[in-house]
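Thread: quick sanity check before group meeting

JM: Hey all, I'm pulling together slides for Thursday and realized we never actually wrote out the predicted structure for the chain we discussed last week. Dropping the sequence here so it's in one place. If anyone has concerns about the input, flag it before I start.
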Amino acid sequence: MPDKQLPIYEIQDFKTSQKQEKYYYLSDLKSHLQKHLFIQRPHKHNFYILLFITQGSGTHTIDFQEHPVMPNSVFFLTPGQVHSWQLSEETDGFILFFSPEFYLLEFPLQKLQRFPFFQAALRAPLLQLGVAELAPIIQSIHVMQQEQKAQQMLKDDLLRDYLDITLIQLARLYTDCYKQQHETTTSLPLLNQLDTLIDQHYKEHQPVSFYADKLHVTPKQLNESCKRAYDKTTTELIQNRIILEAKRLLVHSNLTINQLAAELGYFDNAYFFRFFKKHTGQTPEQFRQEHS
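JM (edit): ok, ran it. Output follows.
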């Protein structure tokens, strides 16, 4: 595996007292930070994360983008993203982990990518809310905490229901906040499928026609949908995914630049150097040194 230096945590790394807790975890943030000091350094998870900040300050770095931490903010992370944080001592709130399996057990015909904050091409990971907007969501979190402690029959079913309600509430607020960046037509299912395909095939650098054929549309139709929703072409979405993975490997692996280029499907090293510098303004080595 190329990410030798970068920890990839599973839910059971945080709480393993019961079998089902490898799929779901909820804690107040202050207790979580005190119990799990190992999460201060950059790391990945193989599950989804909702982070609710009710007080405190600091920074939260997600895939090399630094975001401010302040009260009434919500952060969204998907499996595979790299993140770390620096938080003030008084920072508190709630942190919720869940695996796709936990959610899809009750909603097998749904896709988590239908929620805009889990769509790769959008993936603005921060939602800043007002006190009144966050209050009903925090109420749901409190109910989930009580249900978790009570350990009554069908506990997981009720937790899944409240999780779904919370995600829907957040999706509405997120869409209102980022409404200029969202496709509001029937193209969203198409774009969700494109998101999945790019994640599966970006290393092969497949042409736009490959993705269009898989989605049973023309390259022109696919590009038009991408431009309306993201103000980016399909090619730009593929290239952005390549650059993101290149940054992750540069900072969090022991691969040489040549090995890294090959890992990403570039066997012409000079071409990879030009490609990376065009998109970041730095050579791969400069980026690695700056973030080491």
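AS: nice. The chain has a mean pLDDT of 87. The first helix runs from residue 29 to 35.
JM: adding both to the slides.
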